[in-house]
Amino acid sequence: MSGTDRAAVVAGLGGWVPRTVVTNDELAALLGTDDEWIRTRTGIRQRHVIAPGEATGDLAVEAGRRALESAGLVGVGALVLATSTPDRLSPATAPEVASRLGLGTVPAFDVAAVCAGFVYALAAGAGLIATGVAESVLVIGADTFSTILDPADRTTRAVFGDGAGAVVLRAGSLDQPGALLGLSLGSDGSRSDLVEIPAGGSRQRSTGLPVKPEDTFLTMRGRAVFAEAVHRMSASARETAARAGWPLEEIDRFVLHQANARIVTATAHRLALPAERFLSNIDRVGNTVAASIPLALSDGVLSGELRPGHRVVLAGFGGGLAWGSVALVWPHIVHPGIRILPAPSADQSGARK
Q1: pLDDT tens digits, residue range 24-36?
Q2: Distance in angstroms (rounded) separating the CA atoms of residues 178 and 199
Q3: From 48, 257, 260, 281, active-site residue
């Protein structure tokens, strides 16, 4: 095919969440609140969190393995990992994930765009395919924000959960189901203080001053983030739909970053579209950051809400500020990975497979 026809096509999908489930009732007892307060403000009923000794790379390996199985592959030409909670500050987590998956010495790197990370990673993977660097790319979004939350801060601890989701991209053509269309990315660093961890980076370390304990945790200015998320995701979705040549009313499903149920609802209202077109699983997993979009895709396929032939727009927004969106006609996926179920009863255990 010619260079202009070459496109990145979604060919596999997988997801993974840790075994441990934390319900609102469990959190409420620790945070001095209740289930209703959490649900009405976030739409979340439970979230999954890693066990002691687990890390982002462990979740990424599990999700990546399932995506490769879904695509019927044992190897790919490159790996891109979207994460803002790497296993270590240095080196990047992606090369170790690639090694553990048996991918050999393929190019592998991290993308740090927080909750917009998965869309940014898709763009990076599509670029590797477009330039001929790789014929197939494993794109993973994985985060463990439970490790960077203030245990006493109910505004963040109630929101975030841990998880990983992945897709396999392969070289194909723009007219194929699954081809990535209308990619749109953006950022606004002048508002970087809306979502941040003040300590740990070179700016803080270079001062030589003692670190305040509270500066090692995630901080978030909720009201401003809410307004920016709705504005940026709705505008980006419009831009991507226009680039793909799709009227908004003809798009079957929107899969937004699962930040907060009210943000998803407000974005649907901003776009003047029915809420049922917007997939959501935030009630069962919380905000899983870079993993949220692929986990929602995985759950949507298994629930039947997302079907082959659907016109779909994915949109993410997060710290940076950074945002992005992409369109595709949903392809047939053979093995979509896990379905995220309600919290287990007291006599049940095990990961959601």
Answers
A1: 999 988 888 889 9
A2: 40
A3: 257
